[in-house]
Amino acid sequence: MILFPAMDIKNGVCVRLYQGNFSKSEIVGENPLATAQRIASSGAEYIHIVDLDGALKGTMQNLSLIKDICEKVRINIEVGGGIRDKASVQKLISLGVKKVILGTSALESFDFVKDMVKTYKDKIAVSIDARDGFVAAKGWLDISRVNYIDFAKKMESAGVKTIIFTNIKNDGTLKGPDFEGTVKLNEAVSCNIVASGGIRNIEDIKKLEESDIYGAIIGKAIYSGSIDLKEAVKSFK
Question: Which of 19, 59, 64, 88 is the most buried (most CB within 10 A)?
Answer without folding.
Answer: 88
